[in-house]
Amino acid sequence: MTAKQRIIQVGSYAGSPTANDRLARDYDVVELWKYPDRKAALAEHGTGITALVTSASFGCTAEMIEALPDLKAICSWGVGYETLDIAAAQRRGIQVSNTPDVLTDCVADLAWGLMIAAARRIAYGDRFVRSGAWGQVHGSIPLGSRVSGKKLGIVGLGRIGQAIAKRGTGFDMDVRYHSRRPRDDAPYRYEASLVDLAAWADFLVVATVGGPATYHLISREVLEALGPKGTIINIARGPVIDEAALIQALQAGKVGSAALDVFEHEPKVPDELKANDNLVLLPHIGSATYETRSEMENLMIANLESFLATGKVITPVTE
């Protein structure tokens, strides 16, 4: 009987249908999250391990990489990699993979769900009906805004940003975008200034990567440029928006509404956001469908299998 290849799994994949079972079946897994002293566990079990599996939620720090002298590959579940120390991995020649493409459509769909929910006050209307207020008060809920034919600004025109933009054309929207540089293959107008994009847009969707380079990219200035009739939607990473500035802008009426799937200090959500009826709030579920989570799991495991068989991952992070 062939001995199983030993790997390290940083955290339990609670959001993936069968990932934990598949990894345990096919590999000798060091389940790092079960050890109270991770440093001691890495020292005890780390020698000889060439592959580690993780996610953006669990991360992989420079200290962890340093504790694994034989590590050659980090296979991450999900598209985000801001919590993986890419620079530390690159210095050691360690390959890092993520699971792009397979979650693009579901995240783009959710961005549109949030946009329409905010514009048409769907979450507010749901609470209104459930509370029994319908028919007990004069009139109904405040009027919403039309989405079709409006101006859509997108921050970050990667895979997901492009999918959101494509859906916008189906709603007869004028689409513009801001990113680190213009794309030659994009049929949409590029705005070099994020403030100018916000001032132009009716809806501003944040679809950029997370990490230090985009920390608080959506600043007080950007929010105030969006204005009292504007709506901001975030399906990227929470820290891209200055959350304190967003709360203040909403309370002062300087931003019309917001729809958020991500937050700056997850899972903590400020009470000021929870109490505001001009918000739609979701618990970071952009990829949370049976189909997408299954495909993410398959690609993460395929990257691991490919590395162990050929020495190369399938979808490397290149940065």
From TrEMBL:
NAD keyword on record: yes
Boundaries of every D-isomer specific 2-hydroxyacid dehydrogenase catalytic domain copy: 25-317
Domain of life: Bacteria
Residue ranges of domain D-isomer specific 2-hydroxyacid dehydrogenase NAD-binding in the record: 113-286
Chain segments annotated as transmembrane: none
A Pfam cross-reference name: 2-Hacid_dh_C
Protein name in UniProt: Hydroxyacid dehydrogenase
Species this protein is from: Bordetella flabilis
